[in-house]
Amino acid sequence: MATQDPDCLFCKIIAGEIPSRQVYADDAAIAFLDINPFHRGHTLVVPREHAPDLLAGDAGLGEIAPAVDATARLLRDRLQPAGMNIFSSAGPVAGQEIFHTHVHLIPRYAERPGLRGLFDRDLAAGDDLDIVHAELTA
């Protein structure tokens, strides 16, 4: 059984204690829609093994890379974005807010291009999480 932190939000999601809109799962990781998305389809890939960030513990990028790849391709194929940002923050100075390793997959659309538009949250994106979830899991 994977190491879990009983106080960690993502560990609770992995354990099924907190509901999520899961779009992918394998033995090493799960992926679910971010509840406060930057853009439509913003998804998080998290390892089942708890580690504070990609640089700590054994749950490194190599372990979850297949899930990142599969989920990014799912987003591309189903949502048809013009591009995608893939990133992870390690530590509070880098902007990490939840201290469980996670990779952001953020589909990007032509109407808001470039890095400057990445972090301007799309206020409407959170309104259609159930619609996006249905598109990804149909």
TrEMBL record:
Family matches, as SUPFAM superfamilies: HIT-like
Pfam families from the xrefs? Answer: HIT (PF01230)
A biological process from GO: nucleotide metabolic process
InterPro entries assigned to the protein according to its UniProt record, in alphabetical order: Histidine_triad_HIT, HIT-like, HIT-like_sf
Intervals of motif Histidine triad motif: 100-104
Q: Which GO terms describe its molecular function?
A: catalytic activity
Span of domain HIT: 9-115
The protein's matches in PROSITE patterns, at most eight in alphabetical order, are given as: HIT_2 (PS51084)
Q: Which residues form a coiled coil?
A: none
List the catalytic residues.
102
Spell out the protein name for this chain.
Histidine triad (HIT) family protein
Annotated source species: Naumannella cuiyingiana
